[in-house]
Amino acid sequence: RLNTWESLTTGIAQQAKGVIAPKEKTPFITFVLGGPGSGKGTQCIKIVETFGFAHLSAGDLLRREIASKSADGAMILNTIKEGKIVPSQVTVKLIQKEMELSDNHKFLIDGFPRTEENRVSFEQIIGVEPNVVLFFDCPEEEMVKRVLNRNEGRVDDNLETIKKRLTVFQALSLPVINYYSEKGKLYTIKAIGTEDEIFEQVRPIFAAFEVCSQTVG
Ligand SMILES: Nc1ncnc2c1ncn2[C@@H]1O[C@H](COP(=O)(O)OP(=O)(O)OP(=O)(O)O)[C@@H](O)[C@H]1O
Ligand SMILES: Nc1ccn([C@H]2C[C@H](O)[C@@H](COP(=O)(O)O)O2)c(=O)n1
Ligand SMILES: [Mg+2]
């Protein structure tokens, strides 16, 4: 059986379904990390507009499962309300499905990996490592202010859950960020200022990769 890496590269999964042309380009994967409210989703929209990535938000995929009342929906809802992390197998399978369905080869995977278990599970199931890891580094006070002002009706946008999410971020997500720093893949963005000012730190990172891919051919 082909793993996702092979099927993404060759497009055989899509060809078998007879709907999408073979994928000729190697996947380019960016993980987008940062605490709750650090501005990941906001900046992903700008990256998509400017650089044509497919945006896969792990949180959005999990919320979609809740809304569709799938078998895992109730468990996911309780986990998110508690500010905890959904078992990796569930989240990675949702990401895998989206990657296989996409006809893009450039993926922004937003809010993932949140834990070492997430990270290892992605490597085992998808069989590939990220090319770039972005870290939106934002002071806690600012993150809390932004989340409380977000007003999108999210079940986790309340002070009690935000405090739990910040604790989980410090304990479980920072080690993942340190791991990628040691691997030389981490790009840290100072996530304060206006959305446009922050994007001006993000833009050159992807612009450099665009130049590289054009040079290589
Ligand atoms: N630079 C900024 N200045 C002020 N507000 C911002 C800025 N960037 C984003 N916001 C706002 O802050 C809130 C949180 O942003 P966003 O949803 O992008 O964060 P996130 O990192 O995706 O959070 P989460 O992990 O909870 O999904 C949103 O209401 C957004 O409009
Ligand atoms: N890798 C992930 C991503 C998200 N979740 C759960 C727990 C988060 O608090 C919630 C919301 O995610 P966000 O929209 O803030 O990225 O979804 C998870 O368990 N694992
Ligand atoms: Mg988000």
TrEMBL record:
Its main location: cytoplasm. GO terms for molecular function: ATP binding; CMP kinase activity; dCMP kinase activity; UMP kinase activity. GO terms for cellular component: cytoplasm; nucleus. It catalyses: UMP + ATP = UDP + ADP; dCMP + ATP = dCDP + ADP; CMP + ATP = CDP + ADP. Consists of three domains, a large central CORE domain and two small peripheral domains, NMPbind and LID, which undergo movements during catalysis. The LID domain closes over the site of phosphoryl transfer upon ATP binding. Assembling and dissambling the active center during each catalytic cycle provides an effective means to prevent ATP hydrolysis. Belongs to the adenylate kinase family. UMP-CMP kinase subfamily. Catalyzes the phosphorylation of pyrimidine nucleoside monophosphates at the expense of ATP. Plays an important role in de novo pyrimidine nucleotide biosynthesis. Has preference for UMP and CMP as phosphate acceptors. This is UMP-CMP kinase. It comes from Gossypium hirsutum (Upland cotton). The gene is LOC107946852.
